[in-house]
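User: Design a sequence. Structure:
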């Protein structure tokens, strides 16, 4: 099953994460970390009844942990309008992950 099919299945079967999965379906380049988080949450949803094959497909969506841990933080002062614009771009490009969006813009990745 491909990523979009799994996300659709999560929307239908895992009520606790269905909203995030629905948002992820609208993102063209979903980060592996966000997809992993959605899959892990779906696996833990007590209301979801997954078959063995579906569980295996969900586990396959979980990306390995990056070797380098991000420990440094940068604080930035923004106006409310700037913050809203930043969040809007992050929603569109990284499923709302502002940190991931900032890394993409800063490091052109």
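Assistant: Done.
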């Amino acid at each position: 099953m491909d990523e979009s099919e799994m996300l659709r299945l999560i929307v239908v079967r895992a009520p606790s994460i269905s909203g995030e999965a629905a948002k992820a379906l609208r993102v063209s380049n979903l980060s592996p970390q966000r997809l992993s988080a959605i899959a892990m949450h779906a696996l833990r949803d007590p209301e979801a009844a997954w078959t063995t094959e579906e569980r295996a497909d969900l586990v396959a969506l979980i990306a390995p942990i990056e070797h380098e841990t991000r420990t440094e933080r940068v604080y930035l002062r923004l106006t409310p309008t700037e913050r809203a614009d930043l969040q809007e771009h992050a929603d569109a490009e990284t499923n709302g992950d502002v940190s991931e969006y900032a890394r993409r813009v800063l490091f052109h990745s």
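The first helix runs from residue 3 to 13. The helical segments are 3-13, 18-25, 32-44, 52-60, 80-94, 98-107.
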